């Protein structure tokens, strides 16, 4: 049922044909073109009648005096919702993803390469959110002595993210003290998320001499504050110039969209307000007015424990190849999850 009009299987096929042709050509699609390019087994007159029904349902519209029609946001939504399976990537595309991501040497390079790869595969703007520290588990703590009362705390998460913080101790510590402190901290805190750190502090103190307990409390406090800190969450963007290639698809200027994308908070808000899984936001379904003429395709990626770390996706005009782009977004997220789980 579309807007009160009962949809037939043929009308659905006509809509799909219009979406596919319009995405490919950028030109309004007429009934004769639908008949010639798609094997529907009916006359142009029958297709015209179906197009009238689709237009009454708000799924297509006539942009001007042309006899052709173009999809509306609702038409794109109908098309996306009926995609039963994702188009598999070619072997060359899969090999390119593996080669680029698995050759990265650290998390920063993995995230940067993932964004560049996703932009290259889709010819759209790509965005990859850094793993949230609140969602990652602690892998290791390293204590690097600076003076006898100061040390650099190096925090490594299971997603490969590395954070460094300075800490000052109330009393001088020897290198042997730091070795002991590091051993007990890692034994008790390894694999814990931020929510479990406070409860683990008691076990840490139980394994230490009285003189080392104040230092342990300071280190755990620093680790906890670091993992709770959301201010450092950010998004890596690649392929911004791709949007200018589609300037004709934006009714107004593309520059308000470009300005919005420069604001990290806008991108973070878009990604944060979505549930796990593949998501497609079309036109005004997106939370920002600047994205009202775009589509956002995104999904989550996970860590070793299969818990969501963050999201990645693309932004482009509503006239995009949804089937191919959804497949690319899903595939890059899958390989990104694999490489983070392997490290």
- The backbone outline, from C-alpha atoms, is elongated
Biggest sheet features? 5 strands, antiparallel
The total count of helices amounts to 13
- Strand sequence of the main sheet, in spatial order? 7-3-10-9-8
H and E string? HHHEEHHHEEEEHHHEHHHEEEH
Rg over CA atoms: 26 Å
Averaged pLDDT, please? 87
Helix content bin: 40-55%
SS-based structural class?
Answer: alpha+beta
Low-confidence stretches: 1-6
Span between N and C termini?
49 Å
Amount of beta strand:
15-25%
Question: How many strands?
Answer: 10
Describe the structure.
The chain has 343 residues and is α+β, with helices and mostly antiparallel strands. Helix content is 46%, strand content 17%. The chain has 13 helices and 10 strands. The strands form 3 sheets. Strands 7-3-10-9-8 form a 5-stranded antiparallel beta sheet. Strands 4-5-6 form a 3-stranded antiparallel beta sheet.
Comma- or semicolon-separated keywords:
single chain, 343 residues, alpha+beta, 13 helices, 17% strand, elongated, disordered N terminus
Give a quick rundown of the structure.
By secondary structure, this protein is an alpha+beta fold. It is 46% helix and 17% strand. Strands 7-3-10-9-8 form a 5-stranded antiparallel β-sheet.
């Amino acid at each position: 049922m579309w807007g009160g009009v009962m949809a037939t299987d043929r009308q659905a096929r006509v809509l799909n044909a219009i979406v596919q042709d319009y995405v490919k050509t950028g030109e309004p699609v007429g009934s004769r073109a639908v008949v010639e390019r798609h094997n529907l087994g009916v006359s142009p007159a029958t297709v015209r009648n179906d197009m009238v029904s689709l237009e009454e349902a708000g799924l297509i519209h006539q942009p001007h005096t042309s006899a052709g029609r173009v999809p509306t946001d609702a038409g794109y939504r109908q098309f996306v919702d009926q995609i039963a399976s994702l188009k598999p990537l070619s072997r060359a595309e899969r090999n390119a993803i593996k080669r680029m991501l698995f050759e990265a040497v650290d998390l920063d390079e993995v995230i940067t390469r993932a964004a560049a790869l996703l932009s290259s595969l889709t010819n759209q703007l790509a965005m990859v959110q850094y793993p949230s520290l609140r969602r990652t588990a602690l892998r290791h703590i390293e204590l690097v002595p600076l003076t006898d009362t100061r040390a650099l705390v190096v925090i490594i998460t299971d997603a490969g993210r590395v954070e460094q913080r300075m800490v000052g101790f109330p009393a001088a510590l020897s290198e042997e003290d730091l070795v002991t402190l590091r051993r007990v901290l890692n034994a008790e805190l390894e694999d814990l998320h931020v929510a479990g750190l406070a409860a683990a502090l008691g076990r840490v103190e139980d394994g230490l001499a009285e003189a080392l307990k104040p230092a342990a409390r300071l280190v755990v406090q620093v680790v906890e504050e670091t993992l709770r800190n959301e201010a450092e969450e950010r998004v890596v963007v690649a392929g911004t110039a791709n949007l200018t290639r589609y300037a004709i698809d934006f009714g107004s200027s593309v520059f308000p969209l470009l300005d919005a994308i420069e604001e990290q908070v806008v991108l973070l808000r878009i990604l944060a307000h979505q549930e796990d899984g593949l998501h497609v936001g079309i036109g005004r379904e997106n939370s920002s007015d600047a994205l009202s003429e775009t589509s956002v395709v995104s999904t989550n990626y996970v860590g070793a424990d299969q818990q969501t770390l963050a999201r990645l996706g693309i932004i482009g005009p509503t006239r995009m190849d949804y089937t191919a782009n959804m497949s690319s977004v899903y595939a890059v997220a899958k390989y990104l999850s694999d490489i983070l789980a392997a490290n």
